[in-house]
Structure formats: structure tokens, C-alpha cells
Amino acid sequence: MMTADPTVTLPPSPPKWVIAILNALIGLLLRSPLHAPLSRVTILLSFTGAKSGKRYTFPVGYYDHHGSDLAVIPHHAWWKNLRGSVPVTVWLKGRKYQATASAALGDDQTLAALEPLIAGSQNFARLYKIPRDASGRPDPDRVRQVAKALPLVRIRLESPG
Q: Quick check: is 45 in a domain?
């Protein structure tokens, strides 16, 4: 298991009460008929904590969606609850799905999946200070450095409901 790279940092989070209010509002929208503007980039994810047994539900951005597979790059430690093959519930584009999530950090398969997502994202380039060359391509060494420091949660949608 690789450790996080200290040169890859995120800006500080807002206060917890602000996050709680925003998560509740976004969750309501994602479950409603008004979900469309948010559903292009956000899902509502629910799972049971590995140690606490507590049910967690909150919105997260997804970066890749092919068929029944989603890729989520979390920015907080909640992903550690999803190591292995963990049952989750996902609200995606106005529909509720049962799904299985699996989280990993630093292995070759995760790096191979993260590198194109990071390289293709202006947001990642800005957030993680990834320089671009004269032709606009991101610096591959910095992309790999960032990919090594980020976890990846793969979600496989199984059935509606």
C-alpha cells in the first residue's frame, strides 16, 4: 500500500455545518425530478460504515460513467469504508440503484484508471497544479504523482431499486 504524497494537497473544507446543509439540499435535488443539472456530474452514495455500522449518505462527484460502471475520486477518508466489495446504493440520473463499490489506492490498475481521468480534467489540472506543455498536454510525471496519491472508488451498478 502506498502512502499519500505530501505534495498533493487539497484546499481546506468548509465548516461541517455548511457541508451538512449543502449535502442535504443536493441529496433532495438528486432524488427529485429536478435532478438533471446535478446528475451529469454528481451521484448520491449510501453505504454502511465498516467499523461504526452507521449508514452514510452524501453526494459525490463522478468522473467516468460507462454502462454500469462509475469512477469516483474521493477527497476525504470515507472511501476506506469501501475496500473490498461493498454493497452500496446510488442515485444516478434520477434513478436509485443497488451497486457494489470497491476502493483502491496506488496499485497499478488504479493508476492506469486514474491517469487518463486526471490528464483529461481541467479541474484536476487546476486543483493539483499540473502544468501543461506548449501543446496543452499535462505533464505526465505530475499526473502520475497525483494518481499515486488519490484513491479510486469503482462502482458497478447492479439493479434499479
A: yes
